[in-house]
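Reminder to self: tokens first, then the designed residues, so the page reads top to bottom the way the pipeline ran.
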């Protein structure tokens, strides 16, 4: 297959698995371009970084999440994908993520914080609504994991199916759990604050609760990628390696969160 044909085939496959989420995810990636341009042309800073840094990061992160969800929908038996529960999960992802991104972008345009902003009753309510939206977004993993477990597409490798389900559930538990705790704090930083880790913006002097939250959120990609990396291993050993790798990933994610709580930077 030519290099030019691969993206077209991937797009066709994604659209076939879940059309609405694929279009939504690609739209977010398209919006990422002007957001990144804005980081270069708009001189305003917020907490030492461009006011457009947060919208850019969230556009990319949410695009990855919804496109991953769209791809995983292809592991559900075709007749199950249009059931009300699955359609509702798709609707929740689009609506809740749109709300979150709209508020983040609005606040950025005005040079204001969207997260941890309780300066006025209105901002406090909007921040609480963002938290509720995130819970809905992550909770959508549950019906997807259930559908893949009970109604998988024919010929889906059992080891890989296990990895996808574990990844979805770890994102729900670790990403969601750490996110809930972080949202109840006055800031994502713990202890001294100085410096910004490249791209991610993590605190480089004290702790940063976003590190553990980040690894928790992306378990849904990490564990299936592990399964793909060991696809040549015989099935019984492969399942053991997936379980072991999931346990190690969980331990490292928890360790990163505990490290932040101890006011120690992920990487100084």
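Designed residues (268 positions):
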């Amino acid at each position: 297959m030519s290099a030019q044909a691969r993206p077209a085939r991937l797009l066709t496959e994604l659209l076939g698995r879940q059309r609405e989420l694929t279009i939504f995810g690609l739209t977010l990636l398209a919006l990422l371009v002007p957001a990144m341009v804005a980081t270069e042309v708009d001189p305003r800073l917020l907490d030492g970084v461009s006011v457009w840094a947060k919208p850019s990061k969230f556009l990319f992160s949410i695009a990855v999440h919804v496109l991953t969800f769209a791809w995983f929908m292809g592991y559900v038996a075709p007749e199950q994908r249009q059931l009300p529960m699955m359609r509702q999960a798709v609707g929740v992802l689009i609506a809740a993520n749109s709300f979150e991104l709209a508020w983040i972008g609005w606040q950025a345009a005005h040079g204001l914080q969207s997260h941890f902003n309780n300066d006025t009753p209105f901002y406090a309510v909007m921040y609480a609504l963002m938290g509720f939206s995130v819970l809905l977004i992550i909770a959508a993993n549950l019906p997807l994991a259930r559908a893949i477990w009970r109604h998988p597409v024919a010929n889906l490798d059992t080891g890989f199916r296990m990895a996808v389900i574990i990844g979805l559930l770890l994102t729900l538990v670790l990403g969601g759990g750490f996110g809930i705790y972080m949202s109840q704090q006055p800031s994502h930083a713990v202890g001294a604050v100085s410096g910004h880790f490249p791209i991610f913006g993590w605190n480089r002097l004290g702790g940063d609760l976003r590190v553990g939250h980040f690894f928790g959120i992306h378990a849904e990609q990490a564990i299936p990628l592990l399964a793909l990396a060991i696809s040549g291993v015989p099935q019984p050993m492969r399942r053991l390696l997936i379980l072991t790798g999931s346990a190690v990933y969980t331990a490292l994610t928890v360790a990163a969160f505990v490290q932040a709580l101890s006011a120690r930077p992920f990487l100084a």
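Residues 235-261 form the longest helix (27 residues).
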